[in-house]
């Protein structure tokens, strides 16, 4: 039991107060032993508040109670007197999950012990049990009060929304106990960075907030944000293990960016999203252009959900060339033609589809469409289809691929599935099992963008890839950069030693093509050899000889 929970349990067992707590559904969750002694069997976990305090059905008491329940400040409410009973009143205060009530059956002053006990209860109601920071409900109350108190002579109020970077990975790898410890340590670093006029809150999960009042803005908010970002650059040590977790921060000012709490929180949240998008471990201040970009993104998200059924998604096919002049297949490339915006790059809409859980549906359509198109080509040609890491999460990828192959009637060895190392970095064991199953089906597997991620040689040892695709980053300056030449030459040699074919992506010039051919690169892909084509144009490309490759070979022989 956490310290705060233990303290609450001890109070409930030993307090002389008539104390009770209720959730958002007005149901009893915790109560003092003394309350049951007064009201008997009606007091039980799950009982409605009206069963214990029917006076709250009275219009006057109900309105005051609901005001507190909906986020208002604590209030004392005199209950209507009952025949033969002493006058009663209740003190109602908000908690993180509902309300708490302390009933009093006598008037007059309280003893010092009673006041101390009530203070402890109010602290528990307004502070996060784990970190000791003020809680979400208290944050909402104080933010609204701060905005209401702003006037022309006063400086702006600043809100800083703080989110921990990579917190989930700590929970997943070290366990929730370590995650709780990390939250406590993070709260300590936030608290240590504060000065007068600055208050910190645990908003939710790994999200924190700071309200800054009476400061010159924006300089003071930027100073604090910089201090917080720097504070999280030092690793946390949990059970002897150094843990690196950064902080991303969104800043907004009231009343400039919002005149009520909800508006200001939305602005700070948009700025936090911008900080995450810009690489994390940084702070960003809200501006209107952020809102415009977010609205555009939300519009794209809504449009993408219907893009497939409206026929806005389509495929283009880029030739794969084996020197000297053989077309061995095509890579299917997904495109989106938005009716208003026009062509939207995959780098924009694929992350949206992944985040919204649309990749299973879209990925199946791409696979089926590409396989059907491949049936119109000579039976020796292959079709390569990219797989998103999100498609591995459902656990149905192998079934989907097998169903598509059977439904379309294409040979399994004509299909090549391209993955990036991101797939191998996430849920590695499960994903390797999936790849092995696909390999058993006879499907070729290609490791795309090789050299740009971790490029762990253990992947090449543990899984029999059919193809390595060298990322175009190394091909772009192949003509002049000796380091790129050495890296590409080494990858080709390594792959061939393991019995793996090599494809070079992004071949844009004849010099690049000649160099790669000379180094025995198995396959070339790029605009110099053939730009992405519509489905109808692929047949014509297959029929005619790719003269550019022939010329490259001829130039190579002349060297």
TrEMBL record:
Domain of life: Bacteria
Gene3D superfamilies for this protein: 3.30.70.270, EAL domain
Every GGDEF domain range: 155-288
UniProt-listed InterPro entries: Biofilm_reg_signaling (IPR052155), EAL_dom (IPR001633), EAL_sf (IPR035919), GGDEF_dom (IPR000160), Nucleotide_cyclase (IPR029787), Rev_trsase/Diguanyl_cyclase (IPR043128)
Boundaries of every EAL domain copy: 297-546
NCBIfam families hit by this protein: GGDEF (TIGR00254)
Protein name: Diguanylate cyclase
